[in-house]
Amino acid sequence: MSADKFHIAMVDDHQIVLDGLKTLIKGHPRFELALESNDPAILLSKIGQQKVDILITDIMMPGMTGLELARKVREIHPDIRIMALSMNGEGNLVNQMINESNISGYILKNISRQELLTALEKVAEGGVYFSDEVMQEMLRDAERKTDLEEAKLTQREMEIIRLIEKEYSNKMIAEALFLSERTIETHRKNILRKTKTSSVLGLIKYSYEHNLV
Fold first, then answer.
1. Cys-Cys with 172: which of 24, 26, 80, 168 at CB 3.0–4.6 Å?
2. What phi and psi, each to the nearest 5 degrees, are found at residue 31?
3. Contact (Cβ atoms closer than 8 angstroms) between residue 34 and residue 61
4. DSSP letter at 45?
5. How does pLDDT run across 83-96, given as a tens digit for each residue?
6. What pTM was estimated for this model as a whole?
7. Which CATH architecture is the domain 152-209 placed in?
8. Alpha carbons 88 and 102: distance in angstroms, whole number
């Protein structure tokens, strides 16, 4: 591993998070804080004014999300490596950031000092790092997508699921979709069979897990 020093920019709308990150990297011979901000727009305007090798960005921020910021940084400063920081590793969001912003890492806010430094070292050297919890969630997300593809739900069935989640009765669903109650009953049976659920509660749980509602 080379002994080059890497310059870090970080953004989070909560100052306590930035203070915690600074404490974790303080005194490390290879990492130096170059820029910090609570406002992603301000950070974006300043990031080109000084040397930055790695950007650590929060995901959910007012005004501009971490995904939006990562996209813009990737367009303007393609050499900057980006690490996402979040309270949780929602698989769909992680995959979106990988696909749209080509991030190099995704870590959680409960990260230990040792794990943060390991992540930074890997990313600094051109590698990637994803927290174990994030990797597990990505696998679960992939499994959910596979389940959904296998279920082969039609657009009409998806509409009915959303109405069931809103506690519509068969009669109400029939009126809303201009169909007969018998047709709705048939659709419901097919939906339960395809999703391998046996009750409304099970179906609603399935719909939340697979982002259908």
1. 168
2. -125, 135
3. no
4. H
5. 999 887 676 777 78
6. 0.69
7. Orthogonal Bundle (1.10)
8. 19
Nearest-angstrom CA–CA distance, 165 and 22:
44
Task: Supply 44's token pair.
Answer: 């974006």
pLDDT in tens, 18-68: 999 999 999 899 999 999 999 999 999 999 899 999 999 999 899 999 999
Residue 136, amino acid: Q
DSSP 105: E
Environment class of residue 45 by beta-carbon count within 10 Å: exposed (0-12), middle (13-18) or buried (19+)?
A: exposed
62-100 burial, b for 16+ CB within 10 Å, e for fewer?
eebbbbbbbbbbbeeeeebbbbbbbeebbbebbeebbee
- In the block, tokens 């949780």 appear at 88
Residue type, position 198, single letter: S
